Amino acid sequence: MSDKIEGKSRRSFLKLAATAAPAAAAAIAAGGATQAAAQTPDLSSETMQDTDHTRAYFESTRF
User: Fold this and answer.
1) How far apart are CA 43 and CA 48, in angstroms?
2) What is 24-59 written as a DSSP string?
3) Which of 33, 38, 50, 53 fits a 20 to 30 Å CA distance from 16?
4) Predicted local confidence at residue 2, as pLDDT
5) Which residues 6+ apart lie within 8 Å of 37 measured at CB?
6) Do 48 and 54 form a contact (C-beta atoms < 8 A)?
7) Is the model's pLDDT at 34 over the cut of 60?
């Protein structure tokens, strides 16, 4: 009779967590570099526009 429990073990979970964290950080860092540049503001429009100022604000409010 075997004492080994079938299924996922705590050790395999820790191995996965140790390799997944750096991969997720690399994916986040690579995603920011591929964004398009902000557009120049259209002064005739009254809607919110995608500018450097609005992007900086959204970055500062991110948690």
Assistant:
1) 11
2) HHHHHHHHHHTPPPPPPP-TT--S----HHHHHHHH
3) 33
4) 55
5) none
6) yes
7) no
Q: Which residues of 26-58 are buried (b: 16+ CB within 10 A; e: fewer)?
A: eeeeeeeeeeeeeeeeeeeeeeeeeeeeeeeee
Distance between CA 48 and CA 54 in Å, rounded? 9
DSSP classification of residue 7: S
> Mean pLDDT over residues 20-35, rounded?
67
Residue with tokens 């500062």: 60
Phi, psi of 61, deg, nearest 5: -90, -5
| Cβ 39 vs Cβ 51: under 8 Å | yes
